[in-house]
Amino acid sequence: MAANPMSQFDVYRIGPEIKVGAFDISFTNASLFMILSTVSILLIFNLGSKKNSLLPNKIQLLAELSYTFVSKMISDTAGSKAKPYFAFIFSLFMFVLFCNMFGMIPYTFTVTSHIIVTFVLAAFIFIGVTVIGFIKHGFGYLKLFVPSGVPAVLLPLIVVIEIISYLSRPISLSVRLFANMMAGHTMMKVFGGFVISLGIVGGWLPLSFSVALTGLEILVAFLQAYVFAILTCIYLNDALNLHH
Amino acid sequence: MVKKIYFQSIFFSFFFIKEAFAAESGGMPQLNPEFWVSQIFWLILTFGAMYLVLSKLILPKISNNLESRKSQILENIEAAEKQREDSDAKLKEYDEIVSKSKLEANSIFNQAREKALKDIGAKREVLDKQIDNEIAEAEKEIDALRKNAPDKINKIAIDTSSELLQKLIGAEVNNSSISAIVDDLSKRNGDKYYGN
Asked: Which residues of A touch B62 (CB under 8 A)?
């Protein structure tokens, strides 16, 4: 296991096999870390909202700062119309952030390093945003594919490009997060392997890289959660306020 | 620098991944569909539950807390502003009272001074008049005395001369002839005695 940098992404069953019809929904290490992330989110924010003191304590400050951070992010990118979707984007940001951060602890499993997880989230966002767009604007939502101020000659080409870019949104959204997490964790594993193989003489260089990479990966973990949430806001903005 | 190292190490890591694949031929665990359904199921379950709890219970509480703090702070600021205005008004009032009383004190002082000056003037006038009167009376007396003085002196001179003559000669001399001589003498010597 130690030799293969990809083995950290293995999903394995914990406990018995659970089958519903033809589907295997067994409890796995991925499920464990999803539950750990959600439970810690709920714990922190429950503690942070329990008491309402004028001078917040540390955990309340943390909860309120996260709240205002996400709320500002949404209002900056998607405007005031996006307020009903605040809870969803907040949950999304926190879920991705906590899954990423849990992955930074050694011997843990990174939920967001699996394409299926990020793709389900991205697909849900894509379908949700498309449905919201059609509900708000009817067939006028299709104007999204026809940017204004484009010469008529270029229009067919532009429309095709716009449609392709729109349809590739869930893929780019999911692959961005998954690939970032996978690459970072693989790289850390590789450098960790170098430390062992080069031993006490040459192992210091990859060790220092590993230390630097840990810092970088923590930054990436936060940044990717932020990017995921802000792209969701931008897609939502397209659906709510048809600017094109 | 860090970026360069980052990209280089990504390159190296993929190199290693390839080797690892060649060695174990396990492939990316992410692409193994064995647990996809399980992951989707647990994702929907956990994320859905978290979303429900957050949106129904926790986030409204946090927003409530933030709102109440905001309104409380605003209220406090308003109260402070009001108190500041009050104190400003009081300060103004105080200043007014001070300046007013200063003016009053000034006017009272001025009045008192004027009154005192007036009193002094009146008293001085009265005194001046009295003094003038007294001086005038004294002058009158002196005048009278001065007017009477030559006559009296003449009379004394006449009487004295007649008695002197009587004692010296032993005969009565006519008073009128003596007085004529005295008058004549005093007229002649008057200037010498009175300095006129």
From this structure: 45, 48-49, 63-64, 67
**A45 in contact with B, Cβ within 8 Å:** yes
- CB contacts of B26 in chain A (<8 Å) are 4, 6-7
**Are the CB atoms for A133 and A239 separated by under 8 Å?**
yes
Query: Which stretches within A104-203 are classed as H helix?
Result: 115-137, 155-167, 169-202
Q: Which of A41, A52, A117 sits opposite B43 (nearest CB)?
A: A117
- Place B16 in a pLDDT band, splitting at 50, 70 and 90: low
Please tell me the distance from the alpha carbon of residue A85 to that of residue A139, in angstroms, as a whole number: 22
Looking at the 3D structure of chain A, how many domains does it have?
1
Segments making up each domain of chain B, as ranges: 33-194
pTM, rounded to two decimals: 0.71
Chain A residues near residue B59 by CB distance under 8 angstroms: 45, 67, 86-87, 90
Q: What is the DSSP letter of A69?
A: H
Number of Cα atoms under 13 Å in the Cβ half of residue B172: 3
Ramachandran area for residue A217 (φ above 0: left; ψ -120 to 50: alpha; else beta): alpha
Longest dimension (CA), chain B: 197
Of A28, A38, A115, the CB nearest to B35: A28
As a whole number of angstroms, the distance between CA A20 and CA B119 comes to 123
Q: pLDDT tens digits for B56-111? A: 999 999 999 899 989 999 999 999 999 999 999 999 999 999 999 999 999 999 99
pLDDT tens, A115-149?
A: 999 999 999 999 999 999 999 998 888 888 888 88
| CA separation for the pair B115, B126 (Å, rounded) | 16
Closest CA to A122 of A175, A82, A79: A175
Task: Tell whether A40 is covered by a domain.
Answer: yes
* CA–CA–CA angle B189, B194, B195 (5° rounding): 95
The minimum CA-CA distance between A54 and chain B, rounded to whole Å, is 6
Q: Per DSSP, what are the bridge partners of residue B89?
A: none
Picking from A173, A73, A98, the residue whose alpha carbon sits closest to that of residue A128 is A173
Do B77 and A64 form a contact (C-beta atoms < 8 A)?
Answer: no
Rounded distance, CA B109 to CA B107, Å? 5
DSSP, collapsed to helix, strand or coil, labels residue A68 as: helix
ipTM of the complex: 0.90
- Cα atoms in the 13 Å half-sphere on the side-chain side of A94: 32
The total of other beta-carbon atoms located within 10 Å of residue A180's CB is 21
